[in-house]
Amino acid sequence: MFANFHLIHPFIHSIGIMFLIRLSAFLFFVFHIGFSYGQWTKKASLGGVGRHRGTGIAIGNKGYIGLGHTNGTGVNIDFKDWWQYDPASDSWTQRADFPVLIHGAVSFGTETKGYVGGGSTLGSEFFEYDPVTNVWIPVAPCPLTPGDVQCFSVQNKGYVYQGNQIVEYDPTTNAWTMMANAPIVFGTWSTSFASNGSGYVKSGSSFYEFKPSQNTWIARAQFPGQTSNGGAGFYRDNKGYIVCGYVAGLSVVTNEVWEYNAGENQWTLIDLFPGTSRRFPVAFAIGRKGYFGTGTNGVNLNDFWSFDYDPLGTQELILNEVNCSVFPNPSSQDIHIELNSALMSLGLSARIDVYTIDGKIMHTEALEQAHITLSKFQFGEGTFFCKIQMGNQSVVKKLIFN
């Protein structure tokens, strides 16, 4: 039966070659676009080693991450390396080192320059980074001695806060100006982001907007998530986002992704970060995409991710339409989830994932119908997160079995 093997051998050989070519093309595609997890895509890891309490900013259409430290062995190791990220090529390039070894530095970026200072080493000293000349130069010292907070820029001016004080830096005059005190004292490892006209600061559950044009602070809707502090924030597409952080003590970290709608003054838990839960990461936005990486959960991380949530991305499916009813909740027996049957009829791929509060997946199931029942017998007593995904959009609900 093998008499004609010499005739079919070239055919098999050609199939093998075609398979290898296609496999190579597939691997090239995967490694150049990263792996996609719904709204999140894993990108090229930071060129330097894993770290936390580093700093990250955007300058124009490039991102920058560096500095920080590791201390898991009890020995503190500070860094001063500075890396440039190019979203177009998904690549990192090492640039000129920062002038000193440092962790907990604060930073902000404008369209053309970056500014870094404070932290564990510098006190009130700040440096300006010019990406064109790749040079760091000292600028006027800050009136404050900030550290381990995330500062922001609004209309090419920087804003640095410490306690309940905030100062404005104007690059055109190389001068700092004291602004109106905040109504509360912001704690260490707070999180901030900025829109075109305002800066926003989260400290614990407190959340405030600072309007530079009016030099005023306004209390906004309290942050409803688990994160005490130590998360990272960015602003894109007219929404603010806070990702990960620690819960009460440093040993517990979360993977929650919260979206803030300033127009509605409302927070929504929109996703669970698909990577490792962590504290002390960095984040920034370039164009319509957010970027997030580094941090620690006891292990120092150098992974890097992009976030690109487009509510019109799948047959004009918008997040509010993914709405579902969850009842009774809390429950001592079963929790029922009722989905939008009209959306189910579109034939979109749908699934449900149930996680513990620290991000461990408990259950995954493809959704074939609009009704699903989850039982306390499956998960036990406690609080869980339920992520429902349709197409490339998702919504997250909290489940409580008591």
Structural domain tally: 3
CATH fold call of the largest domain: Neuraminidase
What is the number of E strands? Answer: 36
| CATH hierarchy: architecture of the largest domain | 6 Propeller
Low-confidence stretches: 1-34, 311-321
- Average predicted confidence as pLDDT: 87
* Residues in β-strands, percent: 35-45%
The Cα radius of gyration reads 24 Å
By helix and strand content, what is the structural category?
mainly beta
Task: Tell me about this structure.
The termini are far apart. By secondary structure, the protein is mostly beta strands. The strands form 10 sheets. The protein has a 5-stranded antiparallel sheet, with no helix packed on it. A 4-stranded antiparallel sheet has the order 3-4-7-8, with no helix packed on it. The chain has a 4-stranded antiparallel sheet with strand order 9-10-11-12, with no helix packed on it. It folds into 3 domains: 29 residues; 271 residues, Neuraminidase (6 Propeller), CATH 2.120.10; 83 residues, Immunoglobulins (Immunoglobulin-like, Sandwich), CATH 2.60.40.10. 10% of the residues lie in helices and 43% in strands.
